[in-house]
Amino acid sequence: MSLDDRLVKSGDLIGVAVTDPKGHKLGVIREVFVDRDAGIGRYVAVEPAGLFTGGKYHPLPWRILTFDDKGQAYATDLSKERFKDSPAYDRDQLSKASYGWAEQVERYFEG
Question: Is this prediction's pTM over 0.70?
Fold first, then answer.
């Protein structure tokens, strides 16, 4: 696979599903957070699947996702329960670096 085959436009990531190990949909990508100094994607904010999600988004580290060509989704080893228990934030909280959500997310996924 060439480099050109692996490149994706940021706008094409919005709305892509994130699935658990069994292929069940956990949610969809709503935001992508890029490290402006390193120039790489660090997190995706996932809106949970289903109704009544409470307007919260679950930031997932990019490193725990792999693209599933067959399913045209990003797969993760997270179970549905671990995903539900992961840190969740509203849009206002995600927009403020001072909130410290990235550090909270890193602590959760390191443990």
Answer: yes
